[in-house]
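In full, the data.
>
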Amino acid sequence: MNDTYDNINVDPEMTVMNVHFKDPCGRSYFDIFKEKEDSKEISTRGLRADATLFDEMIIDVNTMYFERKGGYEYAKVFYEEAFRFAEKKFGAENVISAVMHADEINIAATEECGHPVYHYHLHVTAIPVVDKDILWSMRCKDEALRGTVKNVIHQVSHSKKWASKQKELDENGQPVLRANGQPKFVKSYSLLQDELFEHMRNAGFADFERGEKGSTARHLSSLQHQYKKDLERCHELEKSIEAKAIEYEAASDICKTFSEIDDIGTKRTLTGKIIIENTEFNALKSLAKEGVSGRKKIRELEEDAAFYRRRYSDLSHSYRSLEKDYHELRKKCEPYLTAIRRFPEKVMSFMDSILEHIRQERERNEQNKSKETSGYTTAKQKTAKDKVHQRKELER
């Protein structure tokens, strides 16, 4: 079981959204392997000490495929069918773990779509098992049994499980040969892709695209998408560097101006008086005027800067306060948000029932108010009639 992640794009808060089609229930893979071996479900007969005991199948589709189809809910349906394919390949009893990861955010797709987009993929861990015929030896007393099948064991063997028997053909349909003249066989990885593609298409996923033939790269489409976005970021950084270079050039011109000012008045007469030429004198006058006006502008800018610093401080304080309120509110609402993500239909049905209850309660309150108002009006009218009757009696 993997509790730590080298992938920095994993969002721990979204781990609860992972879907376990086959859960080892806290047991280690080796414990499960030992249990199966002890119960004779599998056999390690002829197994090398360094043999592969577990195979991992990663079924992965381009992130935007699910984004177009409906996101998380569609991915669950898709990968549940992919899990059935894995059971078919390994044998359901040999699959130890199968989990759809929904906690890995795709940064490039998120920036493109403007909302969090997660990269859904299926991890399957299984024991590679093949059926091996155990034959009666030639020393068997019963000659009729010699060389026949004695029993069948479920042997753990990665090499036999994925041994390819399909010859690789060239464009003319002829077998491709190795340097030693032996035929080449199609890689089992490529055959597995073909079988998965056919299985998913037969299951109704007609627009599901097969991985690139002959490629051994994983997550190829997603990496291409990430590469494109990273390239765009590089171009933005280049523009920023160019802008900084322009600022540096402007600053270098200022430094050169300071140097020229320092050189003014270096010429002196024999008596020590400073000689300033007309061009230098006019330049000094211009610089003096610019300095006076510049000091005024600097004061104005300092006042503006002080105002904006105070403004920033106030807004920063307000932001921290709002951020604290937001996190407290999110913490309180987390059960509700989790329920929406996992059971959206049930939550909507529940909310509809609450709104209906509120509507009915409001109607009852309005009816009660109407009755009270009507009763008050009737009593008031009765009191007025009694007063009129009393006045008439007194007049008589």
Notes: The two ends are 104 Å apart (CA to CA). DSSP finds nine helices and six strands in the chain.
